[in-house]
Amino acid sequence: MVVPSGVDRKQSVWKRTRYQYLFNEFALATVFRGKFLHEVAALGLQSPTSAPKEWVVDCRHAGRGNSALEYLSRYLYRGVIRESNILFDRNGRVTFQYVDGETGDIRTESLRGADFLWRVIQHVLPRGFHRVRDYGFLHHNARKTLRLIQLILQVVLKPEEPRERPVFCCSTCGGKMNVIGIYPAQRIAHNSGPAHGPPAAMPA
């Protein structure tokens, strides 16, 4: 969960925090524990007597701007491990390398195939779960709020550069071809003319 600072709509200002967090972790743990146990009791369930009185909440500063988003994107929009990081698969053991999060050093580890797969499966979400949910000004129905934030923070969005059209090469001479027409597959399939049809591209 990424929780940014907020925008005050009445004053049209962006609220900045004095600390590296929005909530005190101990206060957050106390409130979460109380609300959780309250909902359990509301459902007619009995909480275990061994439930600890103090709960732990992992609440930390994840960075600012692009550095934080780049760090999180590694876990959200990429596989668990790159194929290039898997070094060996011999005698039922998988050897792979990874980057130590604390030291930044590249380390190597070897596991049994079943243990390696178990680590990968732990990152697979159950059915109905999503890795990312957008709330607040990132929700698709909050475009006006997002525009207000961009104006407050003086964000200037650069227009996307047009993408280059892929190059088609002639199978005979290898030269680049210019597309002069596109014919739908259904039209060609029902065309009673020559089997090859009119040319869709010609050498440049």
Keywords summarizing the entry:
extended, 204 residues, 16% strand, alpha+beta, disordered C terminus, 5 helices, three-stranded antiparallel beta sheet
How are the secondary structure elements laid out?
Elements: E1 7-8, E2 13-14, H1 25-42, H2 65-76, E3 86-90, E4 93-99, E5 106-112, H3 113-121, H4 143-152, E6 168-169, E7 176-179, H5 185-189, E8 201-203
Antiparallel strand pairs: 1-2, 3-4, 4-5, 6-7, 7-8
What does this structure look like?
The protein is an alpha+beta fold. Among the domains are: 80-122, no CATH class; 168-203, no CATH class. The protein is built from five helices and eight strands. The protein has helices at 25-42, 65-76, 113-121, 143-152, 185-189, and strands at 7-8, 13-14, 86-90, 93-99, 106-112, 168-169, 176-179, 201-203. The strands form three sheets. The chain has a three-stranded antiparallel β-sheet with strand order 3-4-5. A three-stranded antiparallel β-sheet has the order 6-7-8, with no helix packed on it. The longest helix has 18 residues, at 25-42. The radius of gyration is 28 Å and the shape is extended. The two termini are 53 Å apart.
